[in-house]
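User: I'm putting together notes for a lab meeting next week and I want to include a structural view of one of the chains we've been expressing. I don't have a solved structure, so I'd like a prediction I can at least talk through. The sequence is below, exactly as it appears in our construct file.
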Amino acid sequence: MKVCSLYGAGYYYIPGTDICMKIGGYVRTEWSYGSGADATAGPWGGNHGYNTRLDSSSASAATGTTITNNAADTTWRTRAYINYDARQQTAYGTLRTYFQVGLSGNNNVIFSANRAFVQIAGFTVGLASSYFDFYSVAAIAYIVDSSSDTGDGGQQVFAYTAQLGNGLSATLSLEQPNAKRRTLFHRGIGLSPVLGAATGNGYAKLVVPDVVGNIRIAQAWGSAQVMGVLHQVTSSYYIPSATGSSNGQNSGHASDKWGWAVGAGLRVNTPMIAPGNYFSTQVAYSQGATRYVYNSAPNNPIAMKGGQSLGYGITTDGVVGLTGEIDLTTSWGVAGGYEHFWTPSLRTSVHGSYIDNKYNTNANDNICALQTTTTAGTINFTAAGASGLSTCNNNWSAWQIGSRTQWNVTRDFYMGFDVVYQKLRSASRGAIVNFNAAGSQPSGLRTVGDQDVIHTRVRWHRDIAP
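Assistant: Thanks for the context. Below is the predicted structure for the 466-residue chain, given as structure tokens.
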């Protein structure tokens, strides 16, 4: 095959055409401690934070069925992806087609495609990254900071980018909203805030795409971006049921609202300290579009339990009350890091993030009204011995700080480790609640308080081709 030098190393002409292609990929294995059973969701996602020696498995070994660990301290994850990049010159500029497919998983390995898009004349269409994103957590850490970073899942986009000259560009993107939806708690249909698992979702069907815009500049000193998004928050019926005349259509629904988020990002190269060094950060503020502040973690809701202590934080885009209003959730966050090259093959980064989640009085009262049930996995402020709803306050925050060190043994193979301290500043701190049994924890009175964990990860990564 003939080498194609138009687009850099690794491209070859497809025989008989003027199309240049490059085939690459990677194989990666990671070992995590303190992440819970899911290296992506992290220690406060699902049932992972129950802090118990018991293995709450989904099947019995005696039956020969595969056991799924719902509670774990140590996690293995392996990924193997192949990517294909094809480019061709046209009258409208470069036509590019890119996709990446492969295997990934913790306990159960699955096949997935996390990127698949077409680019031409400024348009990007397909499965890519959100154009709200700026700070790349994967570039600076293995244990990701809480930010809007789309991550491996990708985002469906229909975007146009205008190049304005001198490194300045502007993008308008229509993006599929379901990947950016959090739970819409709905008191009218009794969605209960179950700890450690996403409960029912009070959102209605998808109607309007998210509208994302950014202005970006990239030059020798680094890059910067300002961005914003409009995200429709639309409620389901008040009293839904599976069939019949009482399926909720006669009960009405809350009026739609527009959630939104704004953000800014900055990257500054610092070669005067060492070649390759840089600082990067992103800050975002949202009402009703929480995933544009923190997309990857924590899950909805988060919880960590150990001994007689319990911590939690409920994540939503909004709360629907009994009188038809949607109270949008307010959140903001900042993430950032600095990477230093000791040598061309040895680097260390320091990285971290902070997120804050707040509810107005009406939304808090509606959530608290649901925290009086005996459903498995819930907390009850009104049970015997509990401190009562006067101590129910669902505002919470979380932060983390860590350091990753990576040794590039060759150009295509590296080994590294990341150590992170994570802190949850719990909702309803100081309250006494009755925790109803779920997973591997017994029921009983618990004191609500802050929680923390140390999370470590070791990674080996080999690129298949340049």
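A couple of points you could mention at the meeting. The chain has one domain: 21-465. The longest helix spans residues 361-370.

User: Perfect, that's what I needed.
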